[in-house]
Amino acid sequence: MPPMQIGPPPKGDGPRGPHAARVNMEKPKDGGKTLKKLLSYIGKSKYLFFSLIFVMLVITGLNLAAPTVQQIAIDCITITEQKLNVDFPALTEALIWLGIVYLSSSVFTYLQGIISAGLSQTTVKTMRRDLFENLVRLPIKYFDTHRHGDLMSRMTNDVENISTTISQSIGSLISGVLTVAGSFIIMMLYSPILTLISVSTIFLTIIVSSIMTKYMRKFFMQQQILLGKINGHVEETVTGYRTVVAYSKEKDLIDQFSEMSDELRKCGIKAQICGGMMGPLMNCISNFGFVLIAAFGGWFSLKGVITVGTIQAFILYSKQFSRPINEIANQYANIQTAIAGAERIFEVMESEKEASGKIEPSGALVGTNYYDFTSEDVKGDIEFKNINFSYVPEKPVLKGLDLSVKQGQKIAIVGATGSGKTTIVNLLTRFYDIDGGEITVDGKDICKLPMDELRRSIAIVLQDTVLFSGTIEDNIRYGREDATLDEIKAAAAHAHADEFIERLPEGYSSKLSEGGANLSQGQRQLLAIARAVLADPKILILDEATSSVDTRTEMHIQSAMVALMKNRTSLIIAHRLSTIRDADKIVVIDDGKVAEQGDHDQLISAGGVYYKLYQTQFAGNKT
Fold it and tell me: Is 187 exposed, middle or buried (0-12, 13-18, 19+ CB in 10 A)?
């Protein structure tokens, strides 16, 4: 191989290159266990992995052979009795072999890049697929207790870190170990004394790199924290821009950004100065080692112990010996960061999943026999028996709640904010599991029903409407994948959404922007209602379903819902009490229990909690 560059390292080597910021490595909690799992994913591509090892063996062998061939070529030129002697046949043969070695090394290095890229992408594809499959099977509680941005970061940043590390580090680690071992053996064969001189500088390299890494980690970590603050500030400004403009806070935000940016600039300068010192220091130590080898080698040559070609070969082997050690030291932070990212990914994969099928028990239900049950079997009788539940331990939301809903009944659930109205829906759909008591559908404990079949029998329209990327037709069809366009149009008409849909240039084929931002909140809610209509559920849940539509549209929806709710069990959660006066039964939740229940007139006459809620709203409307 050609002599290694003496002087500053090329761009991309060590802390000065594009991966400098990774020196602020995030340490894994259990690196050994995580590394074992990560290797199992890499091992799934056995053909690529063993191909990479084979190629690295060839490259290492060629790299180790090059200095020896160079030595042979140099030793073909000798001086005897002040006369230059050149063995041209031997020199020509050596140069030919040297060309073959260099050309072969280039070809195999190219192959190594292709195989490394294939291995990394295949590995992260499998890992990303498994992560997503596990992600969509997590219970609602997991998403409620973890930051969504952090979960997205695991899917993107952490997986990408692993991909980069596999493509760049595995080949280097294999090559580095083989090169260090091979170089050391050949150096010992050439000269044990020169080998000891060369190795002595390695200890100095390790000490200096350890000290420098400690300082670099401090500055780069601070830099990343400040960068995160700036990103958060920008995201918050963009998300809440209407509010910013409404309160004329533009200048304040600019001042805050400038202050954070200036702090990041100062920290960045310190980090880059500290990081930029690593390369020159390592080169200085390496060059000092080469000077020692050259000096002692020259003295041994004068004594006739070794030849000039041997000195040249030894210097190259010494460089090959020290180079992988420096590379491994520089990649250590990247490897640790990748393992930490893998640990975060495996944490999601190993979290408790929902039991979606007939033979997948959840939590305390291990060994439970599931009912032979499909959504078509549901009639709609629902019972809540002595339900206790809390989102946070020792802070109960429901306290011994009892509620009975008969098939086809239209039940309105009302109560003050935080009384537990939406919690009842969360428990019925098994977004959360109860702490105590029993919930039954048609007399069957819902914990013993296949979860996917249970949810298939329920259609729910939430207060916060969720629409997905795609067309309006796609979003309504989400309620039933096999629905025809005529059925979709009929559902839209039932929900009074057809009027605004047909006014759009592309009608049902109109594309929705992110979250349906190109529609009004009321239009988005109409689409959600149309989706529920199309699902044709046995149990219908409306959680503030008409909260974002105008009074006229609400009247249309209410009349449509009367037909939709016929012969269906319906649970309506509402704050506007005027919308549920015609319910078969109004259930008032207070302090985690059913405080009272009956029709509107009965509850008004009772003068209890419902009467106070109604009077409060009436007084508010009157003013």
Answer: buried
**Enclosing H/E stretch for 499:** helix 498-503
Query: Angle CA(508)–CA(510)–CA(516) in degrees, nearest 5?
Result: 110
Q: Which of 404, 406, 413 is nearest to 384 (CA)?
A: 404
In this structure, of 1-15, 87-101, 473-487, the range with the lowest mean pLDDT score is 1-15
Taking the CB of residue 99, how many other CB atoms lie within 10 A of it? Answer: 11
Q: How many CA atoms lie within 13 A of 574 on its CB side?
A: 26
Amino acid at 413: I
What pLDDT does residue 622 have?
A: 45
Could you tell me the end-to-end alpha-carbon distance of the chain, in angstroms, rounded to an integer? 89
Label residue 362 exposed, middle or buried (CB < 10 Å: 0-12, 13-18, 19+): middle
Which sign, positive or negative, has the C-alpha torsion 165, 167, 171, 172?
A: negative
Contacts for 521 with CB less than 8 Å, ≥ 6 apart: 465, 548
CB 154 within 8 A of CB 351: no
Over 80: is that where the pLDDT of 326 sits?
A: no
Per residue, the 3-state secondary structure of 527-580, as one string, reads HHHHHHHHHCCCEEEEECCCCCCCHHHHHHHHHHHHHHHCCCEEEEECCCHHHH
Q: What is the DSSP string of 390-413?
A: -SBTTB-SEEEEEEEE-TT-EEEE
| DSSP category for residue 242 | H
Write out pLDDT tens, residues 188-242: 887 787 777 777 777 777 777 777 767 766 776 677 667 767 776 786 787 677 7
CB 177 within 8 A of CB 363: no
Q: Check: CB of residue 360 under 8 Å from CB of residue 141.
A: no
Q: Cα separation of 530 and 503, whole Å?
A: 17
Q: Per the structure block, which two tokens stand in for 493? A: 């008409």
Cβ 70 vs Cβ 98: under 8 Å: yes
Answer for the pair 449, 371: CB distance below 8 angstroms, yes or no.
yes
Q: What one-letter code names the amino acid at 72? A: I
**Closest Cα partner for 322 from 182, 206, 197, 202?**
202
Q: What is the pLDDT of residues 272-314, one digit of tens each?
A: 777 667 667 777 777 777 777 777 777 877 777 777 777 777 7
Q: Residue 337 CA to chain centroid, in angstroms?
A: 14
Listed in order, strand segments (DSSP E) in 280-351 are none
* CB-CB contact of 541 with 380 (8 Å): no
Q: pLDDT tens, 394-432?
A: 788 888 888 888 888 888 888 887 788 888 888 888 888
pTM score above 0.90: no
The continuous run of DSSP H or E covering 348 comes out as: helix 308-349
Tokens of residue 286, six digits: 């390496």
The DSSP-derived string for 451-466 is HHHHHHTEEEE-SS--
pLDDT, tens only, 138-175: 888 788 777 776 777 777 777 887 887 777 777 777 77
What is d(CA 595, CA 559) in angstroms, rounded to the nearest whole number?
A: 29
Report phi then psi at 276, rounded to 5.
-70, -15
What does the DSSP 8-state code read for residue 371?
Answer: P
Reported as half-sphere exposure (CB side, CA atoms, 13 A), residue 321 has a value of 29
What is the number of alpha carbons within 13 Å of residue 431 lying toward its C-beta?
A: 14
